[in-house]
Amino acid sequence: MKKVSYSCGLDAAMDVVGGKWKALILWHLHAEPLRFGELRRRVGGISEKMLTQQVRELERNGVLHREVFEQVPPKVIYSLTEFGQTLNAALEPLGEWGHRHMETIEAMPRD
Amino acid sequence: MKKVSYSCGLDAAMDVVGGKWKALILWHLHAEPLRFGELRRRVGGISEKMLTQQVRELERNGVLHREVFEQVPPKVIYSLTEFGQTLNAALEPLGEWGHRHMETIEAMPRD
DNA sequence: ACAAGTACCCACTATTTTGTAAGTATGAAG
DNA sequence: CTTCATACTTACAAAATAGTGGGTACTTGT
């Protein structure tokens, strides 16, 4: 979180779920809780450092829950909180849109 | 646009509307076409450079339309394309969510 | 004895994104 | 004749974001 006040709801929401990975992480947790490694494999392309970092922020923001099992080898399970579920639901139309226009988006000029 | 293929719709959508300003710009254009200066005032806090840059990308991506009037002083009007309108519609639940949880978001730990 | 697997942390570097300040053209107003 | 306004552009600086390679602790399997 960077700002303290927002010009509108979208501004605020983007501050929570913006960035390269957060939305994706939520997305992949929508069906079931996952362990760190499994989450990493599903998100794809994310480094360990980034995943820990993003997941910790999401935890601090009350979007997801982190359950640590005191074992060796370590085991940590991530799941959406209720708050996180409402956020994920709000993200769904955007995901739908992206899905529907995937080809158009892939064909967009990149530089 | 950075990627050429996406793991899911949300991934793709975030690539179009991610970043600090783009979603906000779309949002403020939802009701009516606006001139550069007016758009800038409404978005608030954005520099001229950033606005031009973001708006040009959105134009290249077919999200908004840019109409130049060959006058002095210059006049340029921005409006959503139909595509942009579908995107804005998909963004609405997220904006709603942000609006509903504004206080929670503002109270989130920032560092 | 030794490598493999887990979920990290740390220091460091690279890349990307964002911001700041200045300059441009032209005409109208004072 | 100087200033103001518009919608930019350019060069440069700063800040945010991302990646790399190393290390850790302990257990299980070879």
Give the topology, please.
The structure is a homodimer of 111-residue chains.
Chain A: H1 9-17, H2 22-29, E1 34-35, H3 36-43, H4 48-60, E2 64-69, E3 75-80, H5 82-100, H6 102-106
Antiparallel strand pairs in A: 1-3, 2-3
Chain B binds a DNA duplex (30 and 30 nucleotides) through residues 2, 19-21, 35-37, 47-53, 68, 71-76.
Keywords:
homodimer, 111 residues, alpha+beta, Arc Repressor Mutant, subunit A, three-stranded antiparallel sheet, 6 helices, DNA-binding
Notes on the structure:
Two copies of one chain form a homodimer. Chain A is globular and about 45 Å long. The longest helix of chain A has 19 residues, at 82-100. In chain A, a hairpin with a 5-residue loop joins strand 2 and strand 3 (75-80). Chain A has 111 residues and is an alpha+beta fold. In chain A, 56% of the residues lie in helices and 13% in strands. Chain A has a three-stranded antiparallel sheet with strand order 1-3-2. Chain A has a single domain (14-103), classed as Arc Repressor Mutant, subunit A (Orthogonal Bundle). Chain A has helices at 9-17, 22-29, 36-43, 48-60, 82-100, 102-106; strands spanning 34-35, 64-69, 75-80. The structure holds a DNA duplex (30 and 30 nucleotides).
